[in-house]
Write a structure and sequence with these properties.
heterodimer; A: 169 residues; alpha/beta; B: alpha/beta; Beta Polymerase, domain 2; six-stranded mixed sheet; two-stranded parallel sheet; 7 helices; 8 strands; elongated
C-alpha cells in the first residue's frame, strides 16, 4: 500500500504543470510568430539581416514564410507606394487569424521622407498596425526588440476569444 | 550669386528686379568646328529641315521638326553609325511656350560621338514612335506618356509604366503638385475601401514633423509607453526597459548570469 499523499496543488515531483489554456495558447502563439516575407525597400535588408545568422530570428520562433496563408505576422519593411497599396491589403486579408502587423521604419510609419504623390502616408491608412518601429532604417536590434514587445502584447491578450476587431487607424 | 528674392509671396511684385542678371549658359560652338559633326549635320540637313544646330559640351545638338523625328533617327542609325539610343524623354515648357520639348540622346560607338536630337510639340500633339528602330525607346516612350501625357503613335504597347493604370494626371508636368492632387491623395482609400471610407480614415497627414505629445493613439515615446488611448495630459509614468514580463513567462526560463558557466578552457 503506497504511503504517498498526493498534493493536488503542487506537482510533487510528478511531470505535471498546471496552467491555463490562455497561457498555453499564447505561449505557442508568441513563440512561433511566422512572419510574411515582405521587404518593400531598404528596411527589407535590415529585416533579412535580423533573420540571418548574426541576429537569428529563429531563436524567437520567427520564421519567414513566403505565403500569407502560412504567416501571422506582417513586417511592413519599407516604402508603400500607392500602386502597391491594394496588394498589401489583399495579402493582409489572406493571412490567417490571429494576425499582427509591425510597421517597420519611417516610410511605413508615416511615409517618411517620401512626402510625394506616389507614397502612402503610413501603412495604417490601409491595414491596422500593432507596432510602429522608428528608424530609417531600424537596426536589426530594433526589430528584435519590436518582435519581443509584440510577443508581450500577444501574451497579454486573451486567447480563447476571437480577436477584437482592430481600428484601421 | 543671384540676389535673394523672398519666396513667401511670389505674386507680390518685388521692389527690386535684377535686370542685368543673365542666367549662365553653357557655351555653344559652331558645328563647323568639328569635322565629324559637320559631316553628320550635312547628311541630316540634305534630307530634313534643321531648325538649329550647335555643339555644346562636345555634343552636337540638332533641333528638327517633330514630324521628322522617325526619319532623322532612322538616318542617324542606318547611315551615320549612331547605333545606340541612350536616353529619350521630354521637358515640360507648357507654362513658358505651351510646348513639350522631346529629346533623343544618341551615341555612336564607332565615332565615339554623342548627338542630341530635339524637337517640340504642342500639348495635344502626338509624336511618332521610334521603337521600331531602337528597342530602348519602348519603355522610355511609355514613361514619357506616363509622366507627361504625350501620346506616342505606332507604339506597340501604349500603357502607363510606373503609375497604376487607373491613375489620373501626369506627375512630371510642372502643373502637377508634388504632394498630389485630390485624386492622388485619396487613391488608396478609394480603391480599397471605397469613397464612403474617406470620412473614417481622414485626410493624409502631410506634415512629416507632426508629433502630438498627448496623442496616445498614434504616438508613444520610448521609455514612456502607456496603453493606447490613455490620458497623459497630467504626465506619464516612467516605464523601465523590460525584455520579458517580470514574473516570467510560461515554460521560458530567464537567463541567470549567476548560474551560467563561463568556459575558460576553449580547447576543451
Amino acid at each position: 500500500m503506497a504511503q504517498h499523499q498526493v498534493n493536488y496543488l503542487k506537482d510533487g515531483g510528478l511531470p505535471v504543470a498546471l496552467t491555463t489554456i490562455d497561457k498555453v495558447v499564447n505561449w505557442g502563439r508568441s513563440n512561433s510568430l511566422w512572419a510574411l516575407t515582405y521587404g518593400l525597400a531598404c528596411c527589407g535588408i535590415e529585416m533579412m539581416a535580423s533573420g540571418a545568422s548574426r541576429y537569428d530570428f529563429d531563436r524567437f520562433g520567427t520564421i519567414f514564410r513566403a505565403s500569407p496563408r502560412q504567416a501571422e505576422l506582417m513586417v511592413v519593411a519599407g516604402t508603400l507606394t500607392k500602386k502597391h497599396a491594394e496588394f498589401i491589403r489583399r495579402l493582409y486579408d489572406q493571412m490567417t487569424e490571429p494576425k499582427w502587423v509591425i510597421s517597420m521604419g519611417s516610410c511605413a510609419n508615416t511615409g517618411g521622407m517620401f512626402n510625394t504623390y506616389a507614397t502612402v502616408q503610413g501603412v495604417d491608412r490601409v491595414i491596422p498596425v500593432d507596432l510602429y518601429l522608428p528608424g530609417c532604417a531600424p537596426r536589426p536590434e530594433t526589430l528584435q526588440y519590436g518582435v519581443m514587445l509584440l510577443q508581450q502584447k500577444i501574451r497579454r491578450e486573451s486567447a480563447s476569444r476571437a480577436q477584437k476587431p482592430k481600428r484601421l487607424m | 550669386m543671384r540676389a535673394y528674392t523672398p519666396k513667401d509671396n511670389v505674386q507680390k511684385k518685388p521692389y527690386y528686379t535684377d535686370r542685368y542678371w543673365v542666367a549662365p549658359q553653357v557655351a555653344k560652338h559652331e558645328v563647323s568646328s568639328d569635322a565629324v559633326f559637320a559631316r553628320d549635320l550635312e547628311a541630316i540637313s540634305a534630307k530634313f529641315t534643321v531648325l538649329e544646330a550647335y555643339i555644346q559640351v562636345d555634343q552636337m545638338v540638332v533641333i528638327i521638326n517633330a514630324e521628322d523625328n522617325f526619319g532623322v533617327i532612322e538616318l542617324m542609325k542606318n547611315s551615320l553609325e549612331y547605333n545606340q539610343l541612350s536616353e529619350l524623354s521630354a521637358i515640360d515648357w507648357l507654362a513658358a511656350e505651351g510646348k513639350f520639348e522631346i529629346f533623343y540622346q544618341m551615341l555612336s560607338m564607332s565615332k565615339r560621338k554623342r548627338v542630341r536630337i530635339k524637337c517640340k510639340i504642342d500639348e495635344k500633339e502626338s509624336i511618332q514612335s521610334v521603337e521600331k528602330l531602337f528597342r530602348s525607346a519602348d519603355w522610355s516612350e511609355r514613361e514619357m506618356y506616363d509622366m507627361f501625357g504625350i501620346v506616342i503613335n505606332n507604339h506597340p504597347f501604349m500603357k502607363r509604366i510606373l503609375m497604376p493604370d487607373d491613375w489620373e494626371g501626369f506627375p512630371l508636368r510642372k502643373t502637377y503638385p508634388l504632394q498630389g492632387d485630390e485624386f492622388a491623395s485619396w487613391y488608396e482609400v478609394d480603391k480599397i475601401f471605397g469613397k464612403e471610407a474617406r470620412e473614417i480614415i481622414g485626410p493624409e497627414n502631410r506634415d512629416p514633423a507632426r508629433v502630438d505629445r498627448y496623442d496616445t493613439e498614434r504616438f508613444a515615446r520610448l521609455g514612456h509607453e502607456v496603453p493606447r488611448g490613455a490620458d497623459i495630459s497630467q504626465g506619464e509614468p516612467d516605464t523601465p526597459l523590460v525584455y520579458q514580463e517580470s514574473e516570467g513567462v510560461f515554460l521560458i526560463e530567464k537567463f541567470d548570469a549567476e548560474k551560467s558557466v563561463v568556459i575558460s578552457d576553449r580547447d576543451r
